[in-house]
């Protein structure tokens, strides 16, 4: 569509009483069969999709504002608005609405009568209009009573608004105000306060346009100074004319824009400072005032964006070295307010705003500003930078990567941001916390783009770890050169860091002096750095891994576990816990090679018997190693620190680690056992359900007398080859484990075999049958100290005497090429991960079938 008369923006009012922009399109009206009535239709100008479909209900109140706005409510707390590009289009749609509702198009609001008795409704319908008393001093009390009595009724409120508007009553009232003020007529001033306040509550745009005009607005504010509830009048006009100053850091040539800025400031002041806080019943009566301010702000931003000369001059003076400090301070503050002002805009308008600033070169300008010595200017620049990062982090990343090709690392924008975080003078580090959040957003892979031609994640992370990470970690490295930070208020010789800028170059200077290195502010800073590094461990891969291992970062971090600030020690533990949680063997070998569990053990022992967060965090770390069965770390902990941990018995974590370690050692000490397990695993094969049923049927139909004792039943294709050597027999019995101990593997003796049993049965190998095995069963019992022994804590023989078990007799034949078993063991994920150490060929002998015979 090319008809600009019908071009509109669709707005909805959200819960915060702010207007949300739903899109731009073209409006039309017509009969909609589905809604059974004439409706307003708005289709998007971009793709033709339906933005709005609203039936014109006879009882809905529509309001026409500022000649180009139509506002109405479709349901409770759901307000809609159409903002027309041209007045003619607004008039056409308004006439259509009035035609459907049977209203005169000359009115600016259609309103149904609510909450009125039939008598009142009849009286209102019979009276053609509301007659106002003459605008005279002696009739102000009557007028105030009339306004107060009309506010509860929507219809009377509408009639009062029309009467005030048509008779030019507001200007007459303001003339009376000036007269009362000259005569010090206090009663008249109090009545005028009530009248003007009531006119605000009429919620009518046409009246606001009169009251907020240049010739009337100061008198309106003067009327609202004389609140009867206050002993003395307020001095709002004095503040606006003498205290508040309008500064044009860049001259504004457009008089309409200047007038709009003045008007918006004063109306905002009236809303925030002059008008009393509305009651619950009056809050919705000021919705038009909110709308008036909102649309004024949209117009101001649009006018400034369209004024290319204004923005060009602004950024030229910001980056000009000849600009004096006071002028630059004003320019930065204006730009900060401009960006803050844009936050009230809706997404589409805000996108256009920041794209304009980006095209004008806001990021290079910020780089210049951040290098200034003025703390307030740098703070304002930081706020502007936060708006840009929150709006579009990819735009910021692209800029800093491009500038790295031309500038040194010391003056890169992102390094200047890190410098401000490190050098924050606030004892609570409020600014540093804000900047850490911005850096976290910039290095977050979740908001990085991936296209066919390039991957932003790979490029930016490579840049960040090469050019910026050493700046971020410098305080950590400088403050952990000693074995531990000093405690309390003791001063010790310690290497600390100082950051300064000389000739626009960023330096870290090592200082050897008597400095307190474990004070609260330093600990806060190190905690922030650790939080960001922990985030990198969680979300980055090889970049952070290479940096930690090459720079020995974890060892430096664990020095902080000796800090007397518990939050810093816990940050260090959390950093190590995230690394262990990755279960990366590169990290694990690094931890073991440098014995990095030692400071953790020291912190645990120094904590003593106190049951606190430090105690729980450390125990949880070791519990994770045990539950996840991180074999390398388990062996390292037990072999190096068991003596220090063996007496800890109030939790079973460390004894559980010892049990895991012993199981690993027994598997390593019994390679033949592992070989047998591997043979069993590699000669298992999966059978489909149909084959299994056929073989089971054959088994149960077979006559036991037809079978020789100890002979395994196998299909003809799996018959044994003659001349094959026999292997050692398996003669050990395994007892069923309890269901709660299923995560621990059962370990047998040198000639034992482990297997996972079904909790409902006790599985054993029958030794009473005649077999062709070459050696008799061994009578050796389980190792007394092993986890599977009857006397060990992990033994599975703790079932109650009353429990009933079913024994399964298993016939096996051991052959040189493999083990033919009649029990098909379930798959074990842990076994599947172990490497096959059996050197025998797996291809010479096909996998035999396995069957089991049940006997009670």
From TrEMBL:
Family per similarity comment: Belongs to the SMEK family.
UniProt-annotated stretches for the region Disordered: 703-856
Record's compositionally biased regions (Acidic residues): 825-841
Cited InterPro entries: ARM-type_fold, EVH1_PP4R3, P4R3-like_central_dom, PH-like_dom_sf, PP4R3-like
GO BP: DNA damage response
Function per UniProt: Regulatory subunit of serine/threonine-protein phosphatase 4.
Organism, scientific name: Betta splendens
Pfam families xref list: EVH1_PP4R3 (PF22972), PP4R3 (PF04802)
Protein name: Serine/threonine-protein phosphatase 4 regulatory subunit 3
PP4R3 EVH1-like domain residues: 5-101
Compositional bias ranges of the Low complexity kind: 763-786, 795-809
Record's compositionally biased regions (Polar residues): 751-761
Amino acid composition bias (Basic and acidic residues), ranges on this chain: 733-748
Any one GO CC term of the record: nucleoplasm
One Gene Ontology term of the molecular function aspect: protein phosphatase activator activity
Domain Serine/threonine-protein phosphatase 4 regulatory subunit 3-like central: 143-663
Domain of life of the organism encoding this protein: Eukaryota
